[in-house]
Sequence to fold (197 residues):
Amino acid sequence: MSNSSLTVGVLALQGAFARHSEALERLGVDTIEVRTPAHLAEVDALVLPGGESTTMSKLLDSQGLRDPLAERLDAGMGVFGTCAGMILLATDVSDGRADQQSFGALDIGVRRNGYGRQIDSFEADIPVDGLDGPFRAVFIRAPVVERLGDGVEVLASVEGIPVLCRSAAGAPVLVASFHPELTDDDRLHQLFLDQLA
Ligand code: GLN
Fold:
């Protein structure tokens, strides 16, 4: 499937959604900012951006998006979650708020803000499986991946901690603990589009 035949939504309730839309548009994809179930119904795949997973979780409920999104994910819709988006797609979340809920779209366990205060933001040039050169990864109060389930493929790690993972089979799920939309390097967005094909 060429990029131009896809409509990709970016969940736009809160957080760093605008730069994701720009990256996808540079790649020739039609994008929609998703704020309602009607918007969600129009998309072939979805990006869950960084931001604040507790707030996003509440807004998913108040906007009536929780159940429709869970249904689309169960039905195999492709999804790319970055930072808070990764938390929302995980199976287990440590140090979350009691009322925050995740979708369990990828069998990983994450710890919110797991890098700690001293290094709560940092950047690193990381090698990524399948990419020719390193990718500049920007980490902002990032989650730490503490558990990998079966069927989870690690594409990049920093100091032994997975930071970019995807589903090896089944529904296309890609998650990054960093913010790939903050550089002008669109290769991870293209990697996601390739995973949908
Ligand atoms: N710490 C945030 C959370 O728990 C995630 C930070 C981010 O998305 N940059 O949701």
About this structure: The pocket of glutamine is lined by residues 50-53, 83-84, 87, 112-113, 140-141 (CB under 6 Å). DSSP finds six helices and twelve strands in the chain. The chain has a mean pLDDT of 95. Residues 3-196 form a domain with the Rossmann fold fold (CATH 3.40.50.880).
